[in-house]
């Protein structure tokens, strides 16, 4: 569920939605989501001073609270 949420948010922000990939790594109590976008879209996902990236992380973490899990969103190149 968290993976799909992150994918849909990222696809709405970028110019190349077909190049959005999310890798999900699960542990007992945490989930690591690695977001990969096209090189030209990196700025759109991060935003000025990281504001968009912070907003994305906040939304995904809020959605994970009801599952009582910790979510980490990594934006990788």
From TrEMBL:
Q: Which domain of life is it from?
A: Bacteria
Q: Matching CDD domains, A to Z?
A: KH-II_YlqC-like
Which GO molecular function annotations are given, in alphabetical order?
Answer: RNA binding
Q: Where is the signal peptide?
A: none
**Statement: the UniProt record of this protein carries the keyword DNA repair:** no
Q: Which UniProt keywords apply?
A: Cell shape, Cell wall biogenesis/degradation, Chaperone, Cytoplasm, RNA-binding
Q: List GO terms (cellular component aspect).
A: cytoplasm
One biological process term from GO is: cell wall organization
Q: Which InterPro entries match?
A: KH_dom-like_a/b, KH_sf_prok-type, KhpA
Q: Name one Pfam family in it.
A: KH_KhpA-B
- Could you tell me where this protein is found in the cell? Cytoplasm
Assembly: Forms a complex with KhpB.
As for family, the record states:
Belongs to the KhpA RNA-binding protein family.
Q: Which PANTHER family match?
A: RNA-BINDING PROTEIN KHPA, UPF0109 PROTEIN SCO5592
Function, please?
A: A probable RNA chaperone. Forms a complex with KhpB which binds to cellular RNA and controls its expression. Plays a role in peptidoglycan (PG) homeostasis and cell length regulation.
Q: What is this protein called?
A: RNA-binding protein KhpA
Organism equals Ruminiclostridium papyrosolvens C7
Taxonomic lineage of this organism? Bacteria, Bacillati, Bacillota, Clostridia, Eubacteriales
């Amino acid at each position: 569920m968290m993976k799909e949420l992150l994918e849909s948010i990222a696809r709405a922000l970028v110019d190349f939605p077909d190049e959005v990939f999310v890798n999900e790594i699960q542990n007992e109590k945490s989930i690591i989501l690695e977001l990969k976008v096209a090189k030209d879209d990196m700025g759109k996902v991060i935003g000025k001073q990281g504001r968009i990236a912070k907003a994305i992380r906040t939304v995904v973490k809020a959605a994970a609270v009801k599952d009582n899990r910790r979510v980490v969103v990594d934006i990788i190149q």
